[in-house]
Amino acid sequence: MTHTKLDRRSVLQLAGGAALAGTAGTFGMPGTAQAQDRRLVAVMPGPFLPDGARAILERMINGRVENLPYVSPTDTAAKLMAPGGTSRYDMMFSTTGFIQAPVLRERAGQELARPLDLSKIPNAARISPLFQSEITKRGNNTYMLPVVWGYDSVVYNKDFIPEGDPLTQSWGVLFDDKYAGKVAIRDDPYQSIALTALHLGIRSPETMSQADLNRVTQFLISKKRNFRTIWGSFAEAVNLISSREVYAVFGWIPMRAALQRQGMNVTNNWPREGLLVFTHSAFIPKDSRNVDLAHAAINAALSTEFGKQLGQETQYPVCNGEVAATFSEADQARLGYDVEKRGIPLHRYTFPAAMDRWIEAWGRFKAA
Amino acid sequence: MTSPASGKTPKPFPGVRPIGRPFWLLLPGVAWLLVFGLAPILFMGAVSFWRSSIFGTTPDFQFGNYARMIEEPLYVELLVKTLRIAALTTILSLIFSYPLAWFLASRKGAWKAVCVVAVFVPFWISYVVRTFVWLPILGRNGLINQTLMGLGLISSPVEWFLYNEGTVYLGLVYVYTLFMTLPIYLALEKIDPKLIEAATDLGARPWQTFRHVVLPLSWPGVLSGSIMVFLLAVSAYVTPRLLGGTSGIMFGNMIANQFLSNNNWAFGSALSMTLVAVVALFLLVVGRWVGIREVFTGGKG
User: Taking phi first (over 0 means left), then psi (-120 to 50 degrees means alpha), and beta for anything else, what does residue B289 get?
Assistant: First the structure.
């Protein structure tokens, strides 16, 4: 073995070299400056940027996307409101109904996002009529554009719960004693209370009265024994079904996709009481340093090529109304593009006015 | 310390001229305590009087967050449940860890090193993974159920292995074992074997030797371990959520919901401050009884 003697001089030389290399990009050394300038710092859910879709987006913007971890709409709002938060990121995606208020804030002029220049996002014209109402505007300015949409329903194993069972076409599959002990819901006050309220016939859960909230809580408590457990993470829910610990979970589109990739005989239901639907909107934080690149990225995310690839990789549908036609009828049904034809009410995610009370109600259910 | 002959304090480094009183040596420690100990608590205390809404948190001075905790019985209920789980976890950890620490302390040579490393190894793995691993072991189609069914001891899977309060205790004791075992092991290691020999020579039976010699000398380790396990268990969040099933809720889960689901930092801070106050009170009351002061004062209190 050869030993290299490290004296003080050589250590200083090494440190100096490292420092020079580190600052090279900043001072415009050839080959590094361009890569640095074309880097877009994004905060968006990982499933919206799988390898194939990422390659398309990065090719279209001629830059690299550095996607930071996405946790939840609440976390996105916290990131944005933190000191320096409006300049730290170039583009953000989050659940429209939850992020609108924190981004727009109470009065005009207080917005944490910058108005979008729609001349730089020609693909905005492709947004389906179904999602036009999800475009976030104040006055003449547009602040957020819906890009991806999805739905949350019951993902179930057809080996144990026959597709023909009428219960599968209702949230009731989670509550009926027929499948007691074989189902799981999510440890999330919003989603679990909203779906229970819909099941009990409450048309607008987010604005329900305290009496209705109490009724929902009591119903959940009365059905507590029916739930094998409540899951907290994506992997946990997938594992519950794949290990056959339960036969049905309240779940997400990528869970169904992941389980199908494992060879599981699963599908999702279309609850007649109302499907929980969300859109994820893109916006540019107020002090973004890469405004042009962010506009290009939003335009690319709204392109037909990106939307088709995203559907193929993750089964997520997109708000671009032209993408559905690129899939076969069977695939459109599989991905949910036929949701309007199914004739079920679509319940859009909205932040409840009394979220504190919802959290307490959920706590009472768990503590019961 | 003073020199008995002169009555003067001897110089620690003879020949070296001291630069004033060496208070500056305390600076790093004091700065650490202020920045990472006191400041976060003070900040959290201040935020607990603020107001949060969907638009963010705004400075204020109001008692609404604390009033809500008093109005809603759920919070007291959860506090009591959390203290009960933390206390029982501490007792169970002690019951399992003391014999383990004794076993480690009584080994010799290379065998001892191997045993100590074997106790440490699982703790090099993430806390979440060590909790998650119980799912495929205890689940309906898990290792234990499959084994019992394979042996013909049961005809259908046992459901209660998983997703109840008992599993939460199992998970908490497992993940916090090291924090109890290590201080007890270190305390046992310090005991001079001659004291045990002397007790035996004087006719003490093994139980008497343990009760009158070993236990009192290892008591600081027991207390240190108990405090650590209690404090970790009282703020547990992942274990009850993963293993507790539909009833897997502790006070920490309520606090987390305020930050993760609601962006209500003010109320989350008020809940946190309440937990800090209740735990401090609990340690104060129980501590008087078990002599906890020794742990915090290094036996000079």
Answer: alpha
State the average pLDDT for chain B. 89
Least Cα distance to B246 among B159, B141, B116 occurs for B159
pLDDT tens digits for A139-159?
999 999 999 999 999 999 999
Pick the CATH number of A39-149+277-346 from 3.30.379.10, 3.30.420.40, 3.40.50.300, 3.40.190.10: 3.40.190.10
- Facing A229 at nearest CB: one of B142, B245, B264: B245
Q: Which residues of A touch B259 (CB under 8 A)?
A: 74
User: Is A189 within 8 Å of B78 when comparing Cβ atoms?
Assistant: no
Phi, psi dihedral angles at A109 (to 5 degrees): 95, -15
Domain segments of chain A as ranges: 39-149+277-346, 150-275+351-367
pLDDT digits (tens, 9 = 90+) for A171-209: 999 999 999 999 999 999 999 999 999 999 999 999 999
Q: Tens of pLDDT along A338-353? A: 998 898 999 999 999 8
Architecture of domain A150-275+351-367: 3-Layer(aba) Sandwich (3.40)
Closest residue, chain B, to A354 (C-alpha): B262
Look at A189 and B259 and tell me if their CB atoms are within 8 Å: no
Q: pLDDT-derived band of residue B10, with 50, 70 and 90 as boundaries?
A: low
Q: Which CATH class is domain B65-297?
A: mainly alpha
Residue of A nearest to B237 (CA): A232
A210 touches chain B (CB under 8 A): no
In which band, very low, low, confident or very high, does the pLDDT at A24 lie, cut at 50, 70 and 90? very low
Query: Do residues A58 and A65 touch, judged by C-beta distance below 8 A?
Result: yes
Residues 6+ apart with CB under 8 A from A249: A154, A155, A156, A183, A184, A185, A186, A231, A237, A240, A241, A255
A256 Cα to chain B: minimum distance (Å): 21
Residue to test with chain B: of A79, A99, A230, A365, most B Cβ within 10 A:
A230
**Number of helices (H), then strands (E), in chain A:** 14, 11
Distance from CA of B29 to the nearest CA of A (A): 28
> Is B247:A366 a contact under the CB 8 Å cutoff?
yes
> Is B261 close to A74, i.e. CB distance below 8 A?
yes
ipTM confidence score? 0.79
Contacts of A368 in chain B (CB under 8 A): 247
In terms of CA atoms, which chain A residue is nearest residue B54? A102
